[in-house]
Amino acid sequence: MTGPARRLAILALVLVAMMVTGPARAFEDRLAHVVVDAATGRVLDARKPNHLRYPASLTKMMTVLMLFRALDAGTLTPDTPIAISRTAAAANPVKLGLPPGDSISVAEAIPALIARSANDVAVAVAEHLAGDETAFAHEMTRVAREDLGMTRTTFRNASGLPDDDHQSTPRDMARLALALWRDHGARMAVFDTRVFPFRGQALGTYNPLLSSLPGANGLKTGFTCAAGYNLAGSAARDGQRLIAVVMGGASSADRLATITRLMEAGFDRLAAADPNDDMAETPPLTLAALATPRAVRVQPAPDVEGCGGLYAGGWAIEMGTFRGLGRARDLATRVARVHGGKPLTSPAGVGGMVRHRAYVAALGAGQARAICRRRQARGQYCVVRSPRMMWAAMQAVTRLRRSLR
Questions:
Q1: Rounded mean pLDDT of 312-340?
Q2: Which among 301, 366, 302 is positioned nearest to 340, based on CA atoms?
Q3: Which domains are assigned to the chain?
Q4: Where in the sequence numbering do the catalytic residues fall?
Q5: Which of 150, 148, 171, 173 is nearest to 160 (CA)?
Q6: Which of 89, 168, 328, 373 could form a disulfide with 356 if both were Cys (CB 3.0 to 4.6 A apart)?
Q7: DSSP-based three-state secondary structure for 351
Q8: CA 44 → CA 34, 35, 169, 308, distances in Å?
Q9: Taken in order 135, 140, 141, 145, is the CA torsion positive or negative?
């Protein structure tokens, strides 16, 4: 092998090693959570509770709290109409789809925000209470920091729709949930809304925890591409209440499984606690005592083919590269439908042309290997990709897309 060829071969090996063993963080590492005993504020479990995350529609808990405060102050009544402006009507889905000039009462707006996560209603509420959404977001942030101790939270809108500076933490979202229960307990049944009746329709809640965990009675789900899947939950058993917040889940099923496991473990821990233990020597860890880590900027998920192509974490299989996006997407969808996981496509620069790779992600290691063995036995292309390899590949996709703009 000649000198230049040898150097190229060594460089190629180094690049492969960097992809496989480098410091890139897998998407699932963004998962963060906290579990709190609502009666005492004691932290029962936590993972990255003070790390910045995008709250997505968990934001609407704060929007609802602002409505509750206005009701307490007497500036609103449940029958007060909230006008739908052109700006509100133009909000991105999810929304009720109310036209400009329509209105919704406060009593209707609150469950619309909680059960249906209606972005058009969130904008309308912001405009009604503060004149415009920017002013409302400033007031939300002030109340959150000064009144509720949500020291790492910044709101930029009333809905949680994407904004790079719209940030919070599991700890702060737990403080918000606890403030709702502490200060507005008489109104909290609305967070347990299973079906929202609205103008002849029966609109079901988006919160899967209410029907899957015994004793669950709120609070709110959230999702954007950059945030991943978030869920703030409340549940009560035997006179004890837990608040749990999960942020950055890989899928709806992942966040539900995670928060269910955490809450079941929390109730078990409370049931096993010795009531005679005054914990004098080991005072309980509370939300207020959680240490704040060094400033870490929110790390969004890799930019692939929009929401449908969000790398969902876990192991993946790669099934080929195609000229047309449709062929790649169809293949990924078909395989995911049969074997599970999340269909994923990503652009790839091949020979100066853009092609589209087909993946199925959010798999376990054994599951990915078994699928590939079956496909390879039929003569079909299939390669197993680890989470680290997928993260590196998706980061490369982000760079490719930026270079094409």
A1: 86
A2: 366
A3: 27-273+281-289 (3.40.710.10), 302-404 (3.30.70)
A4: 57, 60, 117
A5: 173
A6: 328
A7: coil
A8: 8, 5, 17, 35
A9: positive
